[in-house]
Amino acid sequence: MTKIMPQSGILEIAPYVGGASHVEGVANVIKLSSNENPFGPSDAAKEAFRRAAHELHRYPSTDHAALRSAIAEVHGLNSDQIVCGVGSDEILSLLCQAYAGPGDEVIHTEHGFAIYKIAALANGAAPVEVPERERVTDVDAILAACTDATRLVFIANPNNPTGTMIGEAELARLADGLPPQAMLVIDGAYAEYVDGYDGGASLVETRENVVMTRTFSKLYGLGGLRVGWGYAPTPVIDVINRIRGPFNLSQAALVTAEAAVRDKAWAEKCRSENTRLRAWLAEALAEHGVVSDTSTANFVLARFADRAQAEACDTYLQASGLIVRRVAGYNLPQCLRITVGDEPSCRRVAHAIGQFMGAGAPGGQT
Ligand SMILES: *Cc1c(COP(=O)(O)O)cnc(C)c1O
């Protein structure tokens, strides 16, 4: 028997599985499984990335000052309260590493993002799953689950994969009701899709116990580049900066993200197209008898009669060259998460689901 063992908790991790991108034997698939921006990054971002090729022999900036000021300027934030990471995933992991360990509890919700549990276990902390109310974050349930051991509370707002969100007053009530040793992390990966929502930034500025995370992977179309950031009280930023790798982000990533955030016209175009196509898709699905909660993000959570129907529909879609996301791992076996693609993709997926539902409704084609 080997005596070489990882830290406790690590072998309990179910490795994260990303959205599929191909189907055996099917050509020209449309990938609607990873909430990627169907329009890709802005031209300015692509040009910045090309230019960065000439400087690949140089080490990158360690303080990310230029990117932080660009983010601060565009979003109206304080640049010294921003920390940049290799995707927001890195920020979420660093928060766990810094604030939660053996004996500590990390709260996430019933249909919360998988990374929260992984990051807690990776650091020896105990993940605590709290119920939601009809696929919506339940502030009272979270507050009731808090103990003296709670160190972090993770919620995504809007949430993935439900697409639902809670309002600012509820977020404030959650932050203010936490025990003194616990911190609220508001994951704003989809915040840019919500008109007039600051992702929780004002809560960060007015409290000591709130952190917001954001990403370039969704609205900005840079999922392949890996850039995210956190907005936190300065003592928390100071802690994170002590443990993050000094060269965690490449110069190519830094300059490309900076160009992306400054291209407000492209972001606005992507946001408004998403809003229009999301409404169209949800309505088209409803006409075929597939319901969904009102989504505030760039995907729709299609709800079927049961697990068997959801899986049969997924199989039918795959055969038609359409890849969506099964979410049984998020306690939603009767659902499929469908990214809002460009218009032809939305039409194709709605048409295919219509064919599936029509073929043998209410059970669908099984
Ligand atoms: C996509 C997503 C992220 C983004 O992760 P990155 O590491 O920034 O690509 C974070 N949280 C949620 C809930 C997401 O869906």
CATH topology of the largest domain: Aspartate Aminotransferase, domain 2
Helices, by number, come to: 12
Instruction: Describe the sheet with the most strands.
Output: 7 strands, mixed
| Order of helix and strand elements from N to C terminus | EHHEHEHEHEHEHEEHHHEHEEEH
What ligands does this structure carry? pyridoxal-5'-phosphate
Number of E strands: 12
pLDDT < 50 stretches: 362-366
Mean pLDDT: 96
**What is the CATH-assigned architecture of the largest domain?**
3-Layer(aba) Sandwich
Helix content: 25-40%
Estimate nothing, just give the exact number of structural domains: 2
Spatial separation of the terminal alpha carbons: 47 Å
Structural class: alpha/beta
Shape summary: globular
Corresponding CATH superfamily of the largest domain: Type I PLP-dependent aspartate aminotransferase-like (Major domain)
Side-by-side strand order of the widest sheet: 2-8-7-6-5-3-4
Q: Please tell me how large the radius of gyration is.
A: 21 Å
EC number: 2.6.1.9
GO molecular function, one term: histidinol-phosphate transaminase activity
InterPro entries: Aminotransferase_I/II_large, HisP_aminotrans, HistidinolP_aminotransfase, PyrdxlP-dep_Trfase, PyrdxlP-dep_Trfase_major, PyrdxlP-dep_Trfase_small
Cofactor: pyridoxal 5'-phosphate
